[in-house]
Amino acid sequence: MKTLFVKEHEAPRAWFVIDATDKPVGRIAAKAAYMLRGKHKVTYAPNQETGDYIIIINAEKAAMTGTKAEDKMYYHHTGFPGGLRSVNYAKLLQRHVEDPILLAIKGMLPKGPLGRKLLTNVKVYAGGTHPHAAQNPQAVEV
Fold it and tell me: Domains plus CATH for the chain?
């Protein structure tokens, strides 16, 4: 058995589009993280960026089950003493429509330089249009 090793710049990269309308945020994020890592490819390597580009449209219509819209909290720290800030899902959705999906995907990617690089390969849009039509993205069902 010969090990397949593909250089990152030679790896074939495709573009995929995911429609988030009425789909749970976690399911969307899990599918996107899986494809960003490249785990659906034969040439997957855990230390390489061989995944694909993901476009997520209709982020404002993504579903959140139960009472999570009011109960789920997102935290960040300003860096100053006593600077822990929190906001719930509903308020975060009003301010930045793309952030809940991006934060969910970020939590599913590896921590460190590889995870930060992979996060640049996902594009999230609130509406149904995106500027990446020239890349001929293929639709993916979640």
Answer: 14-64+97-140 (3.90.1180.10)
